[in-house]
Structures are given as structure tokens and as C-alpha cells.
Amino acid sequence: MLFRLTTVVLLCALTACSVKKYAVRQVGASLNSGPSVFETDEDLILVGDALPFSLKFVETLLAEVPDDRNLLLTAVRGFTLYSYAYVDFPAEQAYEVDLDRGREMRERALRLYLRAARYGFRAVETVYPGFEDELRRNPRQAVLVTNPKKRERDVPLLYWTAAALGLAVSNAKGDAAMLARLEEVDALIARCTELDPDWDSGALHEFQLTLASARPGGGDRATIDQAFEAAEALRQGSSASLYVSYAEAAAVPAQDVELFRRMIAKALALDLEKHPDKRLLNTVAQRRARWLEERTEDLFLILEPLEESAP
Questions:
Q1: What global pTM score does this model have?
Q2: Per-residue pLDDT of the chain in tens (311 residues, 90 and over written 9)
């Protein structure tokens, strides 16, 4: 009798556990079913206040189902976006007035990007065990394990992992070991481009511009121009960050102030309401565009005069 009772209790507990994990996995699936309420919001302060709680909630769910690919993708995506919008950019601003504070914030941004990258690699390894170790040993060969027939699954995993790692590298100034990991980022993005070159309306090409700032010397101009043209054709005017990234990757290194002003003007002219699914990212990009515009005199040694309007 006691044995039967114990068995029933255990079965109930196991059933409850299974139901709980099933519910958690359903939450994970819903989080990646389309644009999030965060990405469609224009209130940067509201989103910034809410994201830390949401990210910790995702981590709490991952404690229950550590191998859930959807939750892991939500984590890498969320931590990357949070660090980019709310830690990384403010760190750049802080550097202008307080070097110690700026350095402290940049180190925090780096830690958050690396945290995101760890979730990204865990997500990839739910499908391809040992992927990160292989990527470190032989990046170009390691990415070939991904399945062209599963590109809808694989490309987001590879892209967000690359984004987190690439942004970490860009924040690890002077760290040779981190700089060496750019080869991994390049391999991930190159594989994504092979699998689905038009993914997310040009996101892969646009990220090439973001990566240029992490490269010694700023990257090859011809490659930067090619990436911009490909992204612009696919974005069709929906991404303010594309113009901001091109201004920083191409115009500033070339000291082309006319190109810089043209790109910043395009970013600021974008109508947020026309692209509600990108409202938050476009708001972040326009905030950066205004900051760069205010720093024009610091960014360019020789300024061309602005054209005077006709009387």
C-alpha cells in the first residue's frame, strides 16, 4: 500500500514537472513568434526600465529548461539589445566627461555582450554540440556543420551569436585575444549570408558596417560600400541605423563631412510610424545620429560650410 502511494505521489510530481516545463517551453516559443512589445515601443526610458526584469525572468525560466532553444535565443537577443542601447552608447557619452566612469560602463557593456554570446553558443549547441570549441579551432570549417535545409532555424541563432560576440570585440579595446575572435564573427556572418543573404531585410549586410569599427584600420572601404549598397536595397528606407553605421564606417574615416551630413540627415528624416516593427531600434539610431551630429566638429578636421538657404 505504501509502495503504491509513493508511486502515485512520484507520478503526480513528475507530471506536474512535465507540465511546468511544457508551459515554460511554450512561453519560449511565443517570445520568438514575431516582433516583441519592446521592439515596437518608442519610449526608450520605459523599455530601458522594463528590460532588466524581463531578462532576469528569461534566466529564471532557463533555470527550469536550460536547453530550450527559444529561450536561449530570447536571452542572446535581449542582452545584446539591452547592452547596445542602454550601456554601450551611454559609455561613449560618459567618456567625454568622465574617463573612469566611461571605462567602467564600457567594461559592463563587454560583460553583458559576453553573457549574451554564451547564451547564443548554448542555443547553437542544442542543435550542434561542441560548436563553440570547433569554431575557435577552425572557424571557416566549423560553420559548415549548419544545415541549409534548416536555415530558418539556424540563421537567427548564428546571427545573434555573431552580433553579441562582435560587439564584445568592439568594446574590448586593446585585447588581442578578443580581437582574434573577429575571425569567428566573420565566419558566422559569412555562413548566414550563404544560407540566406536577404535575411531580415538586409540585417547581415548592415552588420558588416557595425563590424568595421572593430577592425584595425576600420575595414576595407570597398567592402563597406558593397555592404551598404546591398543593405540599402533590402532595407528600402526602413532602417535609420543603416545610415548611421555607414556615416561612422565610411564617412568619418575618409573625413568626408558631406557624406556624413547626408547620411545623418537620412537617419533623422526616417518616419518611425512607417515601420512600427523597428520603432525601438530606429529611435535608438536617431538618438545616436543626433549625438554624432552635435560632435561633427570633433569628428572632422576640416569642415565644409553648410549650404545657405536661398533668401
A1: 0.85
A2: 444 444 433 344 444 445 444 344 444 343 444 556 677 777 888 888 888 999 999 999 999 999 999 999 999 999 999 999 999 999 999 988 999 999 999 999 999 999 999 999 999 999 999 999 999 999 999 999 999 999 999 999 999 999 999 999 999 888 999 999 999 999 999 999 999 999 999 999 999 998 887 787 778 899 999 999 999 999 999 999 999 999 999 999 999 999 999 999 999 999 999 988 889 999 999 999 999 999 999 999 876 655 554 43
Report DSSP state, residue 199: G
Angstrom distance (rounded) from CA 62 to CA 34 = 20
Confirm if 287 and 44 have CB atoms less than 8 A apart.
yes
Distance CA 139, CA 186 (A): 8
Its sign, for the CA torsion 102, 104, 106, 108, is: negative
Domains of the chain (ranges, CATH numbers): 37-196 (1.25.40.920), 197-299 (1.25.40.920)
Ramachandran bin of 34, using left for φ above 0, alpha for ψ from -120 to 50, beta for the remaining angles: left
**Would you report the helix, strand and coil content of the chain in percent, each value rounded to 5?**
80, 0, 20
